[in-house]
């Protein structure tokens, strides 16, 4: 191989490398501008008092002290966990059952049902606000209150009372996201060989036994993915309480993200909002790390039982 040929190959390799970097650079540039910069700037801003217009004033840890002494902030943490549990756990259970039904050959018009179950996820938020505003109206003519009146139950103040607000928002979370997780579970189930289900049927396994002994073990990576994304999504809950409660975001249903949004864009207190965002980031890291730890421990215990 001559030096000219070697030089030409090196030039072509560098050209290909530069082309690869050039085509992937837009993602990293946009991520640095809209992802990394706001993250670091929010951390920096948490030590300053700033209303978005006047010059920043360094206040040290005062922003953290303020929100940690604010009872509404603790209410937002409690609301986030309660609404997240009420809206996420039933959602995962029903999404798994619906996906199993849609993956079954016994269901006719499966494609139609798959489309219908996914519609809430892509429905306009304005429509969602109107629908749930009518359903959970405080007045006796509200749909849910009308159903309750049939059983001689007094009208519930869904948008004002403590637990009714949480139940209403959790129902909205369930309705919007169950179809999304159903499609993810369904995609995972379609990769499971049909022979496993046929063998289970031959052995006399019921539908519940097929789910427990075949579907769940084979769906373990998908289940972990959905649990992680649903957990993080529950901690970042904002749209549903904002739609249901409006800009007021009362203490009964305010979440952590809604709390920091209100501080930033309603009270123009970007410092305390950034401090709340940093605390939320720490909570997400802790819960995600706990999930990973539990997952690894469960995986190791199963390997030990199998003798791997």
Describe this structure in words.
- By secondary structure, the chain is mainly alpha-helical.
- Helices cover 76% and strands 1% of the residues.
- It has 13 helices and two strands; from the N terminus they run H-E-E-H-H-H-H-H-H-H-H-H-H-H-H.
- It has a two-stranded antiparallel sheet.
- Strand 1 (48-49) and strand 2 form a beta hairpin.
- The chain is globular, with a radius of gyration of 25 Å.
Number of extended strands: 2
* Helix content bin: over 70%
Looking across the biggest beta sheet, what order are the strands in?
Answer: 1-2
What is the mean pLDDT?
A: 84
The biggest sheet amounts to: 2 strands, antiparallel
CATH homologous superfamily title: MetI-like
The SSE order reads HEEHHHHHHHHHHHH
Low-confidence stretches: none
Strand proportion: under 5%
**Overall spatial form:** globular
Using only C-alpha atoms, the radius of gyration works out to 25 Å
What is CATH's topology name? Answer: MetI-like fold
CATH class, named Mainly Alpha
Structural class call reads mainly alpha
The tally of helices reads 13
Tell me what the CATH architecture is. Orthogonal Bundle
Span of the ends, CA to CA: 51 Å
How many domains? The number is 1
């Amino acid at each position: 191989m001559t030096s000219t040929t070697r030089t030409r190959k090196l030039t072509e390799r560098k050209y290909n490398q530069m082309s690869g970097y050039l085509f992937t650079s837009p993602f990293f540039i946009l991520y640095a501008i809209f992802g990394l910069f706001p993250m670091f700037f929010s951390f920096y801003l948490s030590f300053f008092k700033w209303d978005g217009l006047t010059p920043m004033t360094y206040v040290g840890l005062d922003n953290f002290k303020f929100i940690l002494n604010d009872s509404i902030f603790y209410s937002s943490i409690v609301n986030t966990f309660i609404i997240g549990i009420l809206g996420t756990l039933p959602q995962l259970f029903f999404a798994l059952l619906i996906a199993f039904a849609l993956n079954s050959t016994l269901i006719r018009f499966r494609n139609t049902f798959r489309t219908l179950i996914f519609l809430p996820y892509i429905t306009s938020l304005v429509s969602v606000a109107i629908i749930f505003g009518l359903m959970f109206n405080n007045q006796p003519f509200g749909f849910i209150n009308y159903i309750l009146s049939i059983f001689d139950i007094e009208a519930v103040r869904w948008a004002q009372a403590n637990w009714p607000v949480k139940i209403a928002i959790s129902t909205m979370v369930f309705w919007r996201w169950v179809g999304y997780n159903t499609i993810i579970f369904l995609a995972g189930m379609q990769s499971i060989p049909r022979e496993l289900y046929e063998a289970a049927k031959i052995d006399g396994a019921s539908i519940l036994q097929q789910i427990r002994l075949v579907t769940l073990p084979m769906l373990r990576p998908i289940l972990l993915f959905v649990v992680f994304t649903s957990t993080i999504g529950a901690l970042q809950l904002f749209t549903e309480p904002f739609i249901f409660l409006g800009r007021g975001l009362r203490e009964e249903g305010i979440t952590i993200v809604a709390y920091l949004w209100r501080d930033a864009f309603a009270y123009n207190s970007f410092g305390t909002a950034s401090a709340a965002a940093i605390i939320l980031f720490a909570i997400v890291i802790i819960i995600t790390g706990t999930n990973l730890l539990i997952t690894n421990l469960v995986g190791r215990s199963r390997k030990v039982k199998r003798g791997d």
